[in-house]
Design a protein that fits this description.
Helix content is 42%, strand content 18%. The chain is of the alpha/beta class and 535 residues long. It has 2 domains: 177 residues, Aspartate Aminotransferase, domain 1, CATH 3.90.1150; 294 residues, Type I PLP-dependent aspartate aminotransferase-like (Major domain) (Aspartate Aminotransferase, domain 2, 3-Layer(aba) Sandwich), CATH 3.40.640. Strands 4-14-13-12-9-5-6 form a 7-stranded mixed beta sheet, with helices on both faces. Strands 1-2-3-17 form a 4-stranded mixed beta sheet. A hairpin with a 2-residue loop joins strand 7 and strand 8. Helix 3 runs antiparallel to helix 12, helix 4 packs parallel to helix 12 and helix 12 crosses helix 15. The longest helix has 42 residues. The radius of gyration is 28 Å and the shape is elongated. It starts with 15 loop residues before the first helix and ends in a 7-residue tail after the last helix. The structure holds 4'-deoxy-4'-aminopyridoxal-5'-phosphate. 4'-deoxy-4'-aminopyridoxal-5'-phosphate binds next to helix 5.
Length: 535
């Protein structure tokens, strides 16, 4: 492929190591144009070489690259001198976008409670906004709880001082209070003890719940919710930690709760006796979940697990943040993939295709009952909620909703065609292909681990940690097909093309995948890595 795209572009100053890795896997090419489901390379002869795009901007171009209606609108907006940045003024376009998102979300969920929208620029930023909001809400709930408990303590103190209540032996014994004290002294000792215990609880950092394999971004907090250790561990001291729940063991939720739960203590007076009451301390700040895990290897959340999460979170009053950044915006046949498994979120995050392939836009939605208006004062971003990206995002929704939702149906239909092809490859190569997973235009094909291959060249690919990238390099060189492995599961190739993907492109991908399987079976790892020519 180097001969296809060998233009010198100076010393490597922009992320030189990544460029090296790309080069190694045969993916260091430059795309010069994009249209619908095609990216174009500049060939050695100066002509364009079309590449079928199954990577789809990591899920950002469901409508296709440079959608004519979106580009036309972008041109019109710029020509008309749209006030792209008019921060801290009325933003009717943002309001219209929030209203339209609500209309669709209500239809899909069958609810009518409004979701308020907080805008951001990238996926990870929307996740950070959700987490920050959830933490603000948790802090306010804790403050309200402490006030309520303090009112109880004050009432107990007054009752003991007035001689209308005593501290019974049962309570003195349970807390090991100094023997023989007056009721007033015993109450002082008890309230000190309770205050110490309560402070120890409230000083615990919040705890998040996330699924094994989950990916929620790479910023300071969001990376702590991303399961992949390589991304997360170097930064663990930057933010609160998550407990990761195995996808196949919903009962782990109860175990984690039993290990982490805490209580706040307070006092009450019943029948002239002071008693100690326990109230659950909200240590769990939020449960983050992707309805279809993207970077974790295209793993579909089952309706059963979704129901477990919903039940568990309702029981402990832990908000559910549904991360639809990769799965949402119509890719799986509905705006929210989670609506198909009956999961309802307190929060949603959307990004990627929201920007129509040209704008950088994301949004966090939060259910009215959870909403804290104070958040709007403490959270903001210079670039978020601008007129350009909001107007483009509105257009995206219009295109998804047009003709009674034809785009959603097309995502399903194209997804089915893709999936049928992938399944047929798996059926013919069961020793190599472990599983095909996904929904709509979010499909993954997982290869069995090849580190035990009899061929040293194939073992080398597996042991490099870049297995899927080498396969992607071969597909690009030999089949003019662009795909990538998922970030945290490199044995899974992901396919997230646009609605414009054609039967011919799916057939080309099939030919490429069958060739990959054949080369793996023949032990021709050097062809896959590009160090030997394609036979
Ligand atoms: N959440 C999910 C589910 C994602 O797939 C991604 C990106 N792959 C993110 C969050 C982070 O989005 P961004 O790269 O725009 O920060």
């Amino acid at each position: 492929m180097d001969t296809l795209n060998s233009a010198a572009d100076g010393p490597e100053l922009a992320e030189p190591y990544l460029r090296e890795v790309l080069g190694m896997a045969g993916l260091a090419v430059e795309y010069v144009r994009a249209e619908a489901n095609t990216l174009f390379l500049r060939g050695a002869d100066g002509g364009e070489i079309p590449i079928a795009d199954f990577a789809g901007g990591y899920g950002s171009v469901l409508l296709g690259h440079n959608h004519p209606e979106i580009n036309r609108l972008a041109g019109e907006l710029l020509d008309a001198g749209t006030p792209v940045h008019a921060q801290f003024s009325r933003h009717p376009y943002a309001n219209r976008l929030a209203a339209e998102l609500n209309r669709i979300v209500h239809r899909e969920l069958g609810v009518d409670e409004p979701y308020f929208a907080i805008f951001a620029n990238t996926g990870a930023e929307a996740v950070e906004a959700a987490v920050k909001h959830a933490e603000m809400d948790r802090g306010m709930r804790i403050a309200a709880l402490r006030e309520e408990l303090e009112r109880g303590t004050d009432a107990a103190r007054a009752a003991v001082a007035a001689g209308t209540a005593t501290v019974p032996g049962r309570v003195r014994g349970r807390f090991g209070l100094t023997a023989g004290q007056s009721d007033a002294a015993a109450l002082d000792e008890l309230t000190d003890r309770i205050a110490r215990d309560n402070t120890a609880q409230t000083e615990r950092p919040p705890l998040f719940l996330s699924l094994e394999g989950g990916f929620h971004g790479k910023l300071g907090t969001s990376v702590q919710l991303t399961h992949n250790e390589a991304y997360r561990v170097p930064f663990r001291s930057l933010a609160a930690q998550a407990r990761f729940v195995p996808r196949d063991r919903p009962e782990a939720l109860k175990e984690i709760h039993a290990e982490e739960r805490g209580v706040l203590l307070g006092l009450t007076v019943t029948d002239g006796q002071v008693d100690v009451v326990e109230r659950a301390f909200p240590v769990f700040c939020a449960f983050l979940v992707e309805p279809v895990q993207g970077e974790g290897g295209i793993q579909v959340l089952t309706a059963e697990f979704a129901a477990e999460i919903q039940r568990f979170c309702a029981e402990i009053d832990c908000p559910v943040v549904i991360d639809e950044i990769q799965s949402g915006m119509g890719r799986t046949g509905t705006l929210l993939a989670s609506s198909q498994v009956g999961l309802r979120g307190d929060y949603y995050t959307l990004a990627k295709t929201l920007g129509g392939g040209i704008a950088k836009a994301s949004v966090m939605l939060v259910r009215r009952d959870r909403y804290r208006r104070e958040f709007e004062i403490v959270h903001s971003s210079t670039f978020a909620k601008d007129s350009f990206s909001c107007t483009i995002a509105l257009k995206v929704l219009e295109l998804l909703e047009a003709d009674g939702g034809a785009a959603y149906r097309r995502a399903e239909e194209r997804g089915e065609a893709l999936r049928t092809m992938l399944e047929s490859v798996r059926a013919d190569h069961p020793a190599l292909v472990k599983e095909v997973r996904g929904k709509g235009l979010m499909q993954g094909l997982e290869f069995h681990d090849q580190s035990g291959s009899p061929a040293a060249s194939v073992r080398g690919l597996a042991e490099s940690g870049l297995f899927g990238y080498f396969l992607a390099g071969h597909l690009l060189r030999a089949y003019r097909v662009r795909t990538f492995p998922t970030a945290s599961a490199v044995n899974t190739l992901r396919f997230e093309p646009s609605l414009r993907v054609s039967d011919e492109e799916i057939a080309r991908l099939e030919a490429g995948l069958r060739d990959v399987c054949r080369l793996l079976e023949e032990g021709a790892g050097e062809v896959l890595s590009g160090s030997a020519p394609t036979p």
